[in-house]
Specification:
With 619 residues, the protein is mainly beta. Helices cover 4% and strands 50% of the residues. The chain is globular and about 75 Å long.
Length: 619
């Protein structure tokens, strides 16, 4: 999604020498026969996701309205703010906290990016749907229990929402946003005790990988006058924060928020600069189709990931996303980087730098992060050391062939990393090993004198976190496997001299995450598979969709040790044709429930126990 100012620039003409020079972002600004004929006034737009688990029986529940604001001419303005304090009627500890972000809008408008921060720590990254003149509405509900420490003790108590919008005679839509928080307390009855094992093998607490952190530090812009996100403009642009880590930190995880915009919104379909130069194109959307977000600690590589290719609701063909949004568009995934092996560099009571950059990135990427820290309640200082470290190398091969406006551009990239470090705390002298393997393959092809474009991307990433005792025994394991393929094609045909063209295409997009947890006698598995397919055509003039038709299907499946949930939606021309849900719940027995809610020594007030293994995946 480009910065809104770009909407006014003359570069947005659709027709050009080749699709590489045209944008893939459009606005539906005209009533059309056929398409959206069934759209209702105030229609609800959908993002099929796993429903949040119910709160514990008899637990106190409070809903806290925080902010209500109409975003009109807010481009270049500071975020909207509101005071926040935890509700007196539902004091911590909380079993669950849910953020609700609700939007209503009518008129003509582009999709926009938005974010919610609490004292500079991001809680939600989202994008908006493109409205109809009759009006639409939607609500994003996100489990924010992992931010319990921040919600309980906010340093300044300021909640900020950034949504840059432009309103004029052409784009008339105002985004009316309300933000609230739901707090669910813990059960009023005690849970059964977790029995200790008679084995001599040391054990981690069952909640080691699940309990929320004790402290959250934002890695973001200090003032937030233009939003708290960093704006990365190129591959050499590294943005960072300086901070001091408490000396009793025994675990650290960096949660990264990212979203590409402007020339890199469709990075997965960008041709190389060679193709642009040889054909004398003027587009800035180049640098080929590989991007990798890199995290560093004091200039040392500490982790990376290839981001999930989120398509905003004005992207590819906006008719695909009415009324079912694209995968992740309403709640963009975040990415966890385990930094525990690096605590030996950080717990010396000195200032340290945590930085974020984007390999091969161009203008622009909005990035920030939250550093989640777990603190030892019994020790004022821990001992720690980085044991094994070797800078991982990116292995990348590129194969480009061009013939005038036709071209084929393939990239294969792979990176493997392994870090380990030990931390001596009241839990013992534990060594954490983090092994990650990432592989990405992309193909961008232009045929028929550049009027037909085919894009294929497949990303696979596997991360394993192993915790070992002082004697080398494995006592904890968290393994996450993620795979996300994307493929689409667009055929463009000029149908007149007045700037009109017909674009036909289809799309397939999948997010597949598997997570396994073994810790202190607790074992859990979860899998999420979210698939979308779409096909259709649109008549386009300049940047406006005049007419068209589209059909979209989504299959969402989630399962863990207790839940099985499936939802299937079929939509066409702005109307939901079918929406089927099936679910099965198997409640745990008392012992398993106690294990799921077991807490670290001295941190019982921060334990939630409701996070499933899928939550830990942080995607």
């Amino acid at each position: 999604m480009p910065a809104p100012l770009l909407l006014l620039l003359p570069l947005l003409h659709l027709l050009g020498p080749a699709p590489a020079e045209a944008t893939d972002r459009y606005a539906v600004r005209h009533a059309r026969p056929g398409a959206l004929a069934n759209a209702a006034s105030g229609q609800e737009y959908l993002d099929p996701t796993y429903p949040l688990p119910p709160p514990p029986p008899m637990a106190l529940t409070c809903t806290l309205p925080v902010l209500s604001y109409s975003f009109a001419n807010t481009y270049g303005a500071a975020p909207a703010t509101a005071a926040y304090a935890p509700p007196l009627g539902c004091p911590a500890p909380w079993s669950q906290v849910v953020l609700s972000f609700s939007v209503e809008i009518s008129g003509d408008q582009y999709d926009r990016v938005a974010a919610v921060w609490l004292d500079g720590a991001e809680l939600l990254r989202t994008t908006t749907a493109e409205p109809t003149r009759e009006g639409i509405r939607w609500t994003v509900r996100k489990d924010v229990t992992r931010y319990s420490a921040l919600l309980h003790s906010p340093p300044a108590g300021v909640l900020s929402v950034m949504l840059e919008n432009l309103v004029n005679d052409v784009f008339t839509g105002l985004y009316n946003v309300t933000v609230s928080l739901e707090f669910h307390g813990t059960p009023p009855y005690p849970l059964s005790e977790v029995t200790s094992s008679s084995s001599d093998k040391p054990k981690l607490p069952e909640s080691y990988f699940q309990a929320p952190a004790d402290l959250i530090l934002p890695i973001s812009e200090a003032t937030g006058d233009s939003g708290y996100w960093f704006r990365i403009q190129n591959s050499s642009d590294s943005r960072s924060s300086l901070l001091t880590i408490p000396t009793n930190t025994y675990r650290a995880v960096l949660e990264v928020f990212v979203s590409p915009h402007s020339n890199d919104e469709f990075w997965y379909s960008n041709p190389p600069d060679l193709y642009i130069q040889r054909n004398n194109l003027t587009t800035g959307r180049g640098n080929a189709a590989y991007r990798e977000v890199v995290v560093s600690v004091d200039r040392r590589f500490a982790g990376s990931f290839v981001p999930f290719p989120v398509i905003y609701t004005g992207g590819i063909n906006p008719l695909y996303w009415q009324p079912v949004s694209a995968l992740g568009a309403f709640d963009l995934p975040t990415y966890d980087i385990e930094l525990t092996p690096f605590l030996g560099l950080l717990v010396d009571n000195k200032t340290h730098q945590i930085a974020i950059s984007v390999v091969d990135g161009i203008s622009e990427w909005l990035v920030d992060a939250n550093l989640h820290l777990w603190l030892d309640p019994s020790w004022l200082e821990v001992e720690a050391s980085l044991a094994q470290y070797k800078t991982p190398r990116l292995s990348i091969s590129r194969r480009y062939t061009t013939q005038m406006l036709n071209g084929s551009f393939s990239i294969n990239a792979k990176r493997e990393s392994f870090f380990s470090g030990w931390v001596k705390s009241s839990l013992g002298n534990l060594t954490t090993e983090v092994e990650t393997e990432t592989e990405a393959k992309s193909l961008v092809e232009f045929t028929n004198d550049g009027t037909n474009k085919t894009v294929q991307l497949k990303v696979e990433q596997e991360t394993e976190v192993v915790v070992r005792s002082e004697k080398g025994q494995e006592i904890g394991n968290l393994k996450t496997e993620a795979e996300y393929p994307l493929s689409f094609y667009l055929d463009t045909e000029d149908v007149g001299d007045d700037g009109m063209s017909v674009m036909k295409g289809s799309l397939s997009h999948t997010l597949d995450i598997q997570t396994k947890v073994e810790c202190g006698g607790f074992e859990g598995e979860a899998r999420l598979v979210d698939e979308q397919t779409a096909a259709g055509w649109m008549l386009v003039k300049d940047h406006d969709v005049i007419n068209g038709t589209a059909a979209t299907s989504q299959r969402y499946s989630y399962s863990d040790d207790q839940w099985e949930y499936q939802r299937s939606i079929d939509a066409a021309d702005g109307a939901v044709l079918s929406d089927n849900v099936s679910e099965k719940y198997s409640p745990p027995d008392d012992d398993l429930q106690a294990a799921a809610t077991a807490c670290l020594p001295g941190t019982a007030t921060s334990c939630d126990g409701t996070d499933s293994a899928a939550d830990i995946a942080a995607m």
